[in-house]
Amino acid sequence: MNSVNDKIELTLPFKAEYVSVARLVASGVCSRIGFDIEAIEDIKVAISEVCSKIVSIGSEIANSYTIVYDVSENALDVSYVCDDPSLKCIFDEEKDGLAINIITALMDSVVLCDKSNRIISMSKVLEGNR
Amino acid sequence: MNSVNDKIELTLPFKAEYVSVARLVASGVCSRIGFDIEAIEDIKVAISEVCSKIVSIGSEIANSYTIVYDVSENALDVSYVCDDPSLKCIFDEEKDGLAINIITALMDSVVLCDKSNRIISMSKVLEGNR
Amino acid sequence: MSEGLKFVQEELNDSVKLSLFGEVDIYTSQELKEKLYSIVDNNQTDLIIDCKELNYIDSTGLGIFVGALKKTKQYGKKIVITSLKDNIKKLFIITGLDKVFVIE
Amino acid sequence: MSEGLKFVQEELNDSVKLSLFGEVDIYTSQELKEKLYSIVDNNQTDLIIDCKELNYIDSTGLGIFVGALKKTKQYGKKIVITSLKDNIKKLFIITGLDKVFVIE
Ligand SMILES: Nc1ncnc2c1ncn2[C@@H]1O[C@H](COP(=O)(O)OP(=O)(O)O)[C@@H](O)[C@H]1O
Ligand SMILES: Nc1ncnc2c1ncn2[C@@H]1O[C@H](COP(=O)(O)OP(=O)(O)O)[C@@H](O)[C@H]1O
C-alpha cells in the first residue's frame, strides 16, 4: 500500500441498485488524484466487479459493506470490509473467470483473498509513477 | 423522519476537494429514489452547502465527518455526524445568511441545530408525496 | 447521475438491431438478459447490438452477451457488436470475447 | 466525474466577458475569486459573466459574485450575468440576488 493521505469510505446496502454509487465515488476521487479518463473508467469497472460479487452473495448477519478509498499522492488503494467473515475469498476461479480477468487486467495490484480484515484490496498507480 | 429502507454512508476528510463527492453520491442515490433532475440539483446544493460549512470549520480532534443518506420509498433524509461535538450548531444567522436561505428553500425540512447526535439533518420528499 | 439502461429495437431485412443506451451493470443486467433472449427466441435472425451510446458494461453484461450468443448459434445465426467505445472494447479484448463475437 | 472550473476571457469594446465552465464550489471558489477580482481591478469596465456552461454554484460562489459586484461598483461599473441555467437562476431568486445583479 502507498502512503495514504486521505481516506474516503462508502457504506452500501447489499443491493444491486447502489453499485453505481460506488462508481460515482470512484470517479470523483480519481479525478482529484489526477487519473485520466481511461484510467478512471478502468478503476470504475474493477470496483464495480467486486461490488457486484459482494451484492450477489449478500450477508445473513451484516446489513452493509464498506468500500475504503485510500488516496495517496499518485495512487488509489481500494479495499472492501464487512462485519461478515463469510465474505472472505468470494471469487471462484471457475465461475468468476470473466470478472477475475477484468479486475486483474485493469488494476496494478489485486489481492482477492486478503489475509487481513479486508475482504479484497487492489490499487492503481498514476501513469508515469509506476 | 420517514421509514427508512436503505442507509448509505459517506465518510470524507475535512477537505474542500471532496465536497463534490458528496454531490455525486447525492445524484446516484436520488436518481434511484426517482427524484427528477430539478429536485436532484436542489438536493445536491443543500448537501454541498452543509459540507462546505463543515469543511471550512474543520476539526482538531476528528479526521473525518460522515454524511448519512437515509432512503425511504418516497423521500431522502440526509444527516451529518462527526465525533467532534464542537461541530454542533455551526450555522450563524448573520454570517451564513446566503447558505441558510438556500438550504431551507431547497429542502422540505431542515434541522440546523439537531438535539440528537446528528450535527444537522434535512429531508426532501418526492413531488406528489408531499 | 445513475443512467440506467434503455433500448431501441429496429427490425431490419435479415436481422434485428438493438441499440443500448446507458449502463449495463448488476442492476440493469436482468433487463438486458430478458430483452436479448426474447429477441433471439422470437426472431431467430442475426442480432446487431449497437453500443454507440453504451457508456458502461462489466462482466455481468458480458456474460449475458455470451449467453445470448449461445442461443443465437442454436439457430445458426450470429451476433454482431458495433460502435464499441474504447473503454468497453478493451474489456472484450481482455476477456478474449473480441474473438467470439463479430465486432465492427 | 468532478468537473472543476475553467474560464474563457474575452475583451469586448466597453466590457470584459468571462465565461465559466464547470462547477463553482468551495474547492474551486478561490480560483473564481482571484479571477473575478483581478479582472475588475485591472480593467475597471463592466463585467459580463456568461454562465451557459456553469453547471453548479452554491453560496460560496454567490458570495464571491457579490464581492466582485461591490468592487465593480467602486469603479461605477456593473456586472451582467447571462445564460443562467434554471437550477442556478433559482438560487439567485431564493437569495434575492436576482435584484442585485443585471441578469439577462
Ligand atoms: N473468452 C471466452 N470465450 C468464450 N466464452 C467465454 C469466455 N470467457 C467466458 N466465457 C463464457 O462466458 C460465460 C460467463 O462467464 P463467467 O466466467 O461465468 O463469468 P461470470 O460468472 O462472472 O459471468 C460462461 O458461459 C463462460 O464459459
Ligand atoms: N440579497 C442580498 N442582496 C445583497 N447582498 C447580499 C444578499 N444576500 C447576501 N448578500 C451579501 O453577500 C455576501 C455573502 O453573503 P453571506 O450571507 O455572508 O453568505 P456566506 O458567508 O455563506 O458567503 C455578504 O456580503 C452579504 O452582505
Automatic annotation (TrEMBL), chains A, B:
Instruction: Kindly list the GO molecular function terms attached to this UniProt entry.
Output: kinase activity
**Which UniProt keywords are present, listed alphabetically?**
Kinase, Transferase
- Asked if the record carries the keyword Zinc, the reply is no
The protein's matches in InterPro entries, at most eight in alphabetical order, are given as:
HATPase_C_sf, HATPase_dom
Keyword Kinase present in the record's keywords: the answer is yes
Domain Histidine kinase/HSP90-like ATPase positions: 13-123
In Swiss-Prot or TrEMBL terms, this protein is called: Serine-protein kinase RsbW
UniProtKB/TrEMBL annotation, chains C, D:
GO MF annotations, alphabetized: anti-sigma factor antagonist activity
Entry protein name: Anti-sigma factor antagonist
Against InterPro entries, the record matches this protein to: Anti-sigma_ant, STAS_dom, STAS_dom_sf
Q: Which CDD domains match?
A: STAS_anti-anti-sigma_factors (cd07043)
What positions does the domain STAS occupy?
5-104
- UniProt cross-references to Gene3D superfamilies, sorted A to Z: STAS domain
Q: Which family does it belong to?
A: Belongs to the anti-sigma-factor antagonist family.
Show the Pfam families listed in the entry.
Answer: STAS
Q: Which SUPFAM superfamilies match?
A: SpoIIaa-like
